[in-house]
Each structure stands twice: as structure tokens, then as C-alpha cells.
Amino acid sequence: MTSALPSATRRTALPYAVGAWAAGYGALRLAWAVTGAPEFPPLGTDLVVFTGWWAVALCAAAGLVAAGLATARSWRPALAVGGWAVCVAVVAACALLLLDLVGLLILHPFAGFTVAGFASRLGALTGALLLHAALVEHRRRFRSDCRECGRTGPVAVPGTGAPGWARAGAWLAVAGCLVRLAAQAAAGFGEVPLAQGASMVAFEVGFLLAGVLLPLALVHSWGRIWPRWVPLLAGRRIPRPVLLVPATVLSVGLVGYFGVGLAQLAVETLTGTFNGEGHYSLAFFWVAELGYWVWGWGLGAAALGYHLRTRRPCSDCGR
After folding, report:
1. What is the reported pTM?
2. Which of 48, 98, 135, 139 is the most interior residue, by most CB within 10 Å?
3. β-bridge mates for residue 225, sequence order
4. Which tens digit of pLDDT belongs to each residue from 63-87?
């Protein structure tokens, strides 16, 4: 009689959760495709790239992947690749969520913000996260080195610093942020579409913290222990979510939003349909959006290195 698999390798309910999301959110998109969606100013749509029937198709694809994951008895590489492609497409579709979150953080929602649009994009992202988790669980069950924790790779060595690729990512993020700032300085700040006063100050402070302090904190020791100059907290360990959550959210948001923006900019450049905004040139948009995009990828690499370095080692394999 064979024993049950360890808890980390047992099948979970994640594929069924993805299927439930695909059915529920897909039904909403189908109803909107048939009867017409509400107005979502200023673009007229809550999602981008994959709208209308394409959004319905994405939900159907997610449902098919969920069914495959629920019935899989071995590693299915084609299923995994297809599933992550669906994840990328859904994240691209709800790319405007980055503007929603930034506007809410500075207490000044951007033009066109609606509760319905925000909820719809948040619902789409929820499906992408569920599908990603189900795919990670599928890989852990059939491709991991350790049957206890499902992890792969070399055994962790306590006290080691950030790997070189994570440090490179952090500095790449800083470079992307500074390039974006330099592009704005060269073009001027007269037409920056943000409210003046407290909202502007909050945005500028957050911009520098997220573009310089956050990526460097992820790869240096002072990102794990509060420095001596921090009142009341000096010497205490920094909880992982304090850095990891904002870094992950921001990196995904930047890569998704400006990935879509760069694709659109490339089409406009090739077809000669670029209109611009105000006095900003085509060169400004290329430099600024590439800066943001590079910032997102670098921050993501630094966050991954921080996650691998600070997670609790497995008691069985030491990873």
C-alpha cells in the first residue's frame, strides 16, 4: 500500500478555483460582449488589447487550462506554456490597473477612474494570479527536487548576500528610474498630468522611493534589518512583505502597462500615426517608456533574489 504524497505535492483546489473564475468572469464578459459593456471613460473600455470577444476567449482558454491541470497525471510542458501565455495576456489586458493603484495611493485618482472599471480590472488580475498559482503547483508536483517543499535548485547557504543577477537587476531598476526622470527634466515639467500640492509631493516622494530606495534595499543588508537611523525600529528585522509586496506589485504593473505602451508606440512609429501629447516628442515617449519598462524588469529581478534569499529554508532539503 503506497503512502500519501507529502502535503506540498498533493493536488490542491487551485485548478477548480481557476475554473470557477473562468466561468464567473467569463459569463460577465460574454454578457457585455452580447449586450454591450458599460461606458468606461476616457478610453471607452475597462480592459485594453484583449477586449470584447477577445476577453471572452481569454476566459475560455483559462478554463481549458484549468481542466487540463485538474486531470494531469504528469508534467505537461505544453499546458504550462499555454497557461502562462494566458496569464501574460490577462495581465496585459488589465494594464490600466497600475494607474488605478497609483492614483489611489496618492489620494488623487487619475482621469477616467471608475469603481466599476477598477473592479473589473481587479477581477481580471485575480484570475491571472489564480492561474499562475495553479501552474506553479503543477510544476512543483511533477518537476521539483524536494517532495517536501516542492523547491528546486541548490541548497540555500545562510548569510549569503544577494546574487550578482539580483544586484544587477536592482541597479538596472535605478537606471531606468533615473532615465525616466532625466527624460522628463529634458522635456520640462509644465504639462505633467498630476494635481499640484499634496498629491504631487506624494507622487514625487513615492517615485524616488520606489525607483531608488526600494530596489537597493532588496539587495543590501539594510533591506533586512532596520538601519540605526530609523527611530524605534533600529536593529529589528524588516518583515518580508514590507519590501516584497510593493516590489512585486510595482514590477508586474510597470512591465505590463509599459509593455503594452511600447507595443502601441512601435505600431504608431511604423505606421506614422503618432500624435503625441502636448509638446512631447516621439523620442521622449520612447526614452520614458523604455525607462519605465527596464525599471520594472530590474525591480522584478531584485525582488526574486530577495524572495529566494529570505524565505524560510525547508527542514527536509535545506532549500
Report:
1. 0.87
2. 135
3. 237
4. 999 999 999 999 999 999 999 999 9
